[in-house]
Amino acid sequence: MLFGQSLFQSVLDRLDAEEEDKSGKDEAAHRIRGLNVSFAATVFGGEPPASARPDDAYVDNLGNEIPSPEPMLEPEQKEPEPPVMPDYLARTSREEVAAELAISSQSTLQSLHEKRRAFAKANHPDGVAPSFREQATTRMMIANQLIDEAIRRLTR
């Protein structure tokens, strides 16, 4: 308690006294020197200032009117050409995929993993047109089988 009042009551009294002091003074006294306008634009006639239109803000810097874009002409509707199957997707036999992988007796576990990643990067079904995914899936299955067999031989 401060002078017979609670702390809360003394704060309220001080705020009331400050408010009475403010009502007698000019409101411009609290402004920052050098700042002549407020942050919020005052609109007298209901018309927003030009700076409030963000789509036109860049025009002020250019100084010239920007010509309106020409109307776009609709291109002729052509059917897209069907995708052409890459040559490597036609090679789906076990021997052809093995020749591409080039697995040898000197292959290490690390080199086999690198071959798997490189083959998947070039042949993954998600990387080809939907009509060729079956061939790509077949190639990936064969490559994975060949690499898995080579890894099993290494671990023996």
How would you describe this structure to a colleague?
This protein has five helices and no strands. The protein starts with 6 loop residues before the first helix and ends with a helix. It has 156 residues and is mainly alpha-helical. The longest helix is centred in the C-terminal third of the chain and has 23 residues, at 133-155. Residues 62-86 are annotated as: Disordered. It comes from Rhizobium jaguaris.
In short:
Helix 4 runs antiparallel to helix 5 (133-155).
Kindly provide the radius of gyration, computed on alpha-carbon positions and rounded to a whole number of angstroms.
39 Å
The helicity comes to 40-55%
- Report the count of strand segments: 0
What are the segments in which pLDDT stays under 50 over at least 5 consecutive residues?
none
Structural class: mainly alpha
Strand content: under 5%
Helix count, DSSP H or I runs of 4 or more residues: 5
Question: Would you tell me the overall average pLDDT?
Answer: 78
Q: Tell me the distance between the termini.
A: 88 Å
List the secondary-structure elements in sequence, H or E: HHHHH
Shape: elongated
Largest sheet: none
List the defining traits of the structure above.
156 residues, mainly alpha
Summarize the topology.
Blueprint: H1 7-24, H2 57-62, H3 94-101, H4 109-123, H5 133-155
Region (Disordered): 62-86
Protein name: J domain-containing protein
